[in-house]
Here is the input.
Amino acid sequence: MQNQEEALHADTALLRIAAMLRTDKKAAFGAVVIAIFILVALLANAVSPYDPYKIDLANRLGPMSAKHLAGTDSFGRDVLSRIFYGARISLVIGLLPSIIAILIGTALGLVSGYYGGFIDFIIMRLADIVLAFPSLLLALVIMYSLGVSLLNLFIALAVINWGVTARTVRAQTLSLREKEFVEAARACGVSDLAIMFRHILPNCIPTLLVILTLDIPEAILSEATLSFLGVGAEPPTASWGLMVSENKQFLFSQPWVAIAPGIAVLLLVISFNFLGDGLRDALDPFMSE
Here is the structure.
């Protein structure tokens, strides 16, 4: 019976998402733009007109033209090709650390909310410590401590984002653990682990999906900011934040070099925010009429 109810709940959630994408133009726009960026990232080798790392000093800081739609940078590299390849880094760094943070926060939130007591106190105080620091400042401290690399950037972004998820899942678990279906499972001898992950967790998935779509743009912005500050991706990596940083001195003479990757960041972040807002409206029962 519980499995049937969970399947029905999942079907209802999918129907709500489909209806939202049909009626919410901003969410639909966000979904389309995200899909385009994903395709561009996957097919970067095929769609990029030039090698993004090929230096051509004879053609440095070239204007936008039919040959180079977004111009060339200070090393003569095609800006559009570097934007296409940069989409890979932005999407991977947006997705993987956010998913890792969601997994860590969900596990800790379930344990904290289900058991309570001293375990709850320790986990929530750790979350408070993480949330007490501005996320960018904490990421900078981690990067300076571990060293500049994409792997350490993954770790930094995962560490700074799990606290909100843990608190949200804990709050839902505190409510769900007193429900009749949980009491029935406990009376039947179901283990605590099974109750948490088979009965409580499925009811948290809609909220976690919304959190994920809102964490991804934050991670993308953090990566771009850290790369801009010189503690993220390293040259000659095609990172949007690094592209802006390398070419900011040309902002008033050859603005396209810095503005083009900035527009890419803006589009992707806004699209995820639009989609996240739509998912929240569709899946949050308190916002449904």
User: Anything to note?
Assistant: Confidence is low (pLDDT under 50) at residues 4-8. The chain has one domain: 14-47+79-287. The CA atoms of residues 72 and 78 lie 5 Å apart.
